[in-house]
Amino acid sequence: MRRVLIVLLAGVALLLAGVASAFAADNGLARLEQQVAYxxxxxxxxxxxSATHIESGxxxxxxxxxxxxxxxxxxxxxxxQTLSLVDxxxxxxxRMITVAPADMHPGSGDLSDLMFxxxxxxxxxxxxxxxxxxxxxxxxxxxxxxxxxxxxxxxxMKELGFHAIRVDRPTVLLLAAWQGxxxxxPESEWNRDIWDKLFDAVPEAEHLRARRAETASLRDTATxxxxxRLLVRLWKRELLSxxxxxxxxxxxxxxxxxxxxxxxxxxxxxQVGHKTGxxxxxxxxxxxxxxxxxxxxxxxxxxxxxxxxxxEVSEKAIAEIARxxxxxxxLNVAETGGAR
Length: 340
Hints:
The protein is an alpha+beta fold. It has 12 helices and 9 strands.
């Protein structure tokens, strides 16, 4: 009888210890959310944050279910759709695509520099590399065309369970709408010189009205929660084949922009695979951060919108939020001897 009682008491003790540990973890996440919410107020922008420790599934979210303009972060869903078609045998990364003068869109430095004369052709893989690593807009619109267009990307997201990620327009029309261009010429008249003239012709007041309207629109938006969940499922190899997953993660690791965002305050050498986005008061970054000391990985999205201050203000807020999340999960997981 005494032995049975001892076993029962030991079981109760273990149960209480587990409850206490879970309670402490919940309290820790609650405090982390409070810290993130505080840091979000250091910019005048609205800020949506979602971060998940991939190995344990523990998540924090601040305005994570609110829709935010993706800006160039939309190129990540486009890449997922494109590689899904590759996995299905409907596209090949070796496919050569001719780049015409009408394909030269705003925000396309490297590809425009290659366009010395008509007849340039690039592989779909190379265009994806430009789309993600330097956020080339002409490359993005060419890849989007091969992927079936905006509706096909949105449909793929819904099929995968991401109902709050929607792609409605190619970058060229997205930028025109945000600039306030009301009459876009037929595509047959497009060239790399036409866009600056169209943008410069819009009065500043009209541009600001268009910017406010687009900020409030649901077109080309996502929630931080769903973008983070997309990253988690990508890392877990739940979206694409192993080969396509490695292809996409490798491109995200090579992204050159956004050094002052997720990466801004992390320890030197921290591996971050991410995709940034910037557009008229919108400053975004979404990616996967490798934690120190074998503590695993964090998928994190920080979206902002509606800022009237210099971009660097929102970038600093993103960097501080990322560092706070990084420190919490690195220390918490390390102190408990592994991911929970």
